[in-house]
Amino acid sequence: MTILSTALGTVFYLLQAVSGESGYAQNGDVEDAEPDDNSLLLSFSCYSQLEVDGPLHSLTCAFDNPDINTKLTQIAFLFPQWFSSGGKLPNLNKLQDIYFIKKKQFLLIGNSSICVKLGGKNLTCQEVNIAKIVKPEAPFDIKVIYREEANDFVVTFHTSHLKKKYVKQLMHDIAYRQEKDKKDWMHVNLFNTKLTLLQRKLQPDAMYEIKVRSIPYSEYYEGFWSEWSPSSHFRTPEVNHAGLSLLYGPLSLIIRRLWNNCVRNQKR
Questions:
Q1: Function, please (predicted)?
Q2: Which residues contact 75 (CB under 8 A, 6 or more apart)?
Q3: Of 49 and 14, the one with more pLDDT
């Protein structure tokens, strides 16, 4: 009978890594467990979100092979310190193909071992630093305001991280394109929440789509790009041909007169 067909289910373990000690030694089952030949099959990826719900942090994991989710039951996180303090083992929430938990007691300094256990003694672990796998929350509320007197567009948006204690420094990626150009995205990176787009660099009388995402950008916190914000749309104004005629009409007359004078001087 293969590992995937076992009825004993699966348990995720989050184990605190302590310098000079094995994180597994705090629990007998984990200490005795040995890696399984199917470790590649059980490989998974995780990201953290700090202060995602007030003081609560979250950790989200997913198997790299989505088919394995149909074979697994009874999944939970295990924190060794809770056993010494009599803490209760929390339930791991499942949402489609991802597994996540919200808690205050995440180790934010140093490495942790995240393990997945199948059956009795089959174990696959990864060493991670919670502070280095942060995925920010997506920006929101993008607004685009056209300033006719300046011939530009002012883009603003909001991010919940401005009010957070930990991950406050972010780099933002603003992407925009004409709606008819499905792949031709233009990108601008910035560290604040305001961008100015010059009208002369955009096509006249065109509908544009714009969106933004964020990534940690500091000496300590690192991680992944957030999800894209909901898109916003704006239209550029038409070219004012009447205004151009008023501007270039007298100019063309001056140029014509200068040309005629040059021709006369050459004939002399």
A1: Receptor for interleukin-7. Also acts as a receptor for thymic stromal lymphopoietin (TSLP).
A2: 9, 10, 11, 12, 92, 94, 99
A3: 49
